[in-house]
Amino acid sequence: MRELKMKSKYENMKIIYNRSKIGWYWAPLFVSFWFLLFYLVAVSSFHRMPRLKTTQDELQQPGQFIGERAENTLLRLSKIGPKVVGSAANEQVAVQFLLSEITDIIDGARTDLYNIEKDVQIASGNYLLWSMVNVYQSVQNVVVKLSPKNATSEAALLINTHFDSVPGSSGAGDAGMMCVIMLEVLRVITKYETPLTYSVVFLFNGAEENPLQGSHAFITQHPWAQNVKAVMNLDSAGSGGREILFQSGPDNPWLMKYYGKNIVHPFASTIGEELFQNGFVPSETDFRVFRDFGNIPGLDMAQVLNGYVYHTKYDRFNLIPRRTYQLTGDNILALVKALANAEELENPSKYAEGHMIFFDVLGWFFVYYPESTGEIINISVCVVVCATIVGYIWIMSSSTGMFRRRIWAKFGILTALQVAGVGLGIGLVLSIAMFLDAVNLPMSWFAQNWMLFGLYFCPMLFGMGIVPAIYFSRTKEHGLPLGYGIQLLMHSHCLILTVVTVVMISYSIRSAFVIMLCIAFYTLSVIINMVTRAHKTNFLWLIPHCLCQVLPFMFYTYCCYAFYVVFVPMQGRECNTNPEILMGFFTALMVILFAPFLVPLLCLFRKSKTIISMFGVCTLLFIIFAATPIAFPYAEKTAPQRFFAVHTARTFHNADRASTVNHTDSGYFVVPVDRRPHTLDDILFDNTNYSKAEPIDCDSEIMCGYPIYSSRWLNAVDNSYFVPGPEPNKDYLPTLSIIDKSSSSAKNIKFTLEISGPDHTSIFIQPVNGTTLVDWTFTKEPLEQNVKPPYYVYWSYALDPTPLQFSMEFEHENDNWSGDTFKIAIMGHRTHHDMYVDEEFREFLATFPPWAHVSSWIGSYNSWQL
């Protein structure tokens, strides 16, 4: 009997220590399976959209959103062309178009159920945006208020978008698409018997691109604004596609509850919200104005597909996927109906406390729960993870006959190896990112997204795989069985992620749910294997392990793909930071989540080191590709490089109080927008008549003598340059007049100035010679917040061209006022008058290659010392 037991134990140990491996030729199939899962499930789920409904569908099912009608409306709206604030297209044609559409909707509405009011608001004001004083004059908003008959409450829901566009763009996607969505939602609600508890205000604001002026005008001045309790802001960072919920709140978790219950096609994540709110997205929307100046919560949503055409001439009607209208329309209609009947809308402050954790799973369904519940879930999962790992090691000790301290020692070694592997992968990724930027080869993935795989996925996979592969290859005759060793290695990574989760919980980072899901599914597979005793076998444990990795793999690769869709095009308008770091670091994070429980499985195949080394070889090949035309980052129409070009006349006045001219010149001011500012140098300046002018001393002239158009250009000054050329038409030049100059004390002096010029003008004011600006006509926030001079005032007008008149009071450190008090630079921009563009400027623009997109107009720079 004893001999039989010994024999049985011997056979059991023989099975346990069997180190047989799978044939190497199965490895490509294993890797291919996960690639196919990504392309066939994750990518297709991201692009899945509903069928476009037509007017025939309306006859069969009244009361639904009709995408075909919205599409036809956008076609007519986009034919207006660019709608820049101050242009006739924006202030007359677009406004009349909207009023005509609204009138038609009112004519077909159920006026027995609703009161429908429309208004054209004309407003002026100023406020601090970023470090810029944003001054607007006579901008227009088209507003519609829909109220149920016999309403018992004055509370209202605000739906906002904008109809203006940037210079040179028809704005079909940004945000004409959202305008027609709102029009169709208004039509459906008013035409059919839609129960509403509260009023709904539809705001078509006419000055968002200026930036964010129309929303400020409404929320601070319109009489309907005082009853608005929540907002749905609709915008675009691309050309159609699914609209992502960028952010909600602030606080007010009830909003996310209604989103989750009523959204038809969800696309939202706490990750995106935290990225947006922490400045990773180089953009702002009207949502900020409603939040900061109206103190109202809401939902901030934007379409993000094909961000390459955002703010370019390629933002056209024909590029928007037809099914987009139906997808977004279904969502907005459902949300408006839900929020307009939400009891919380009466007094949102009662329900304001708390945050929500939320995310969609491949667009299939939506998960949301309170932050407090999330903390409980996260902590519970972390506890289960630790208990499972301890239990596994306990059982393994009993099964193998090894001392537990020896197993714990092996676990410690494997943990160190896993840390080393992850560290190696991250180190390779960051090294490649910094190297490519240092040798002026960034953004090779901009048009060729597949480059991201070789540059950043492969080095992470190589680093995480090669370290354990070498270790296991050198421990064939001693230590743990291979299957146990690989499982312990994955346990160690799970434990590392658990520690990271605990740290994120302690800092109240809601995105901790992402890591929690990773360790939860892995722990589930471990528990299944322990219960079924499959973990003792050579390969049977792989079945529950791989099955439990399918959903997390699809979820993380879906999130990764969505990140690239949103952020890759954004790098085409960001010049100050290294985009390789962002892409590389995010890729590394995603690989750490979806790959650590798959890459170690490659060690089960014969020739595992060779297989894993292929990822390293792939990395080297892709680095070589990055230096060749294969990976040229730009493509005509689909992925253009962005530039601004301003035909400029410059006048610099002497510091002699007589306003005599010191220097004049003219030419073309060129602003590269992304991280590759020198791609055109050979094309523009080799074998041509053009050359870069010597830069002006930035200490002597405000903004280095460049005609700044917006605050975003401030970040691009270092890469900008001036190309000498003929004078542009000078009929539009701004003028400066001193209306009054007085002194209230020996140390104070007050100037009253008047400035006239085109409808987009930048004004910079720099106190000099020991003077300080202590008061002025505009908002006092820059002075109270100690904004660093020069003070930036952005002035625009829509209907009323009355000159801007304002006062400034300066204080000197003593009563000796010899010398100048301040410098002032005025930069005028005529952004929507093509008739003034001369032939020489057109010839200069023609030298830009087809893959370059140039936003161009006429401008000026004038400086004085007073």
Automatic annotation (TrEMBL):
MF GO annotations: metal ion binding; metalloexopeptidase activity
Cofactor section: Zn(2+)
Subcellular location: Endoplasmic reticulum membrane
Record's keyword annotation contains Transmembrane helix: yes
Stored Pfam families: ERMP1_C, Peptidase_M28
TM spans (from-to): 22-43, 376-395, 407-430, 450-472, 484-507, 513-532, 539-564, 584-605, 612-632
Protein name in UniProt: FXNA-like protease
Organism: Drosophila pseudoobscura pseudoobscura (Fruit fly)
Gene it is expressed from: LOC4804261
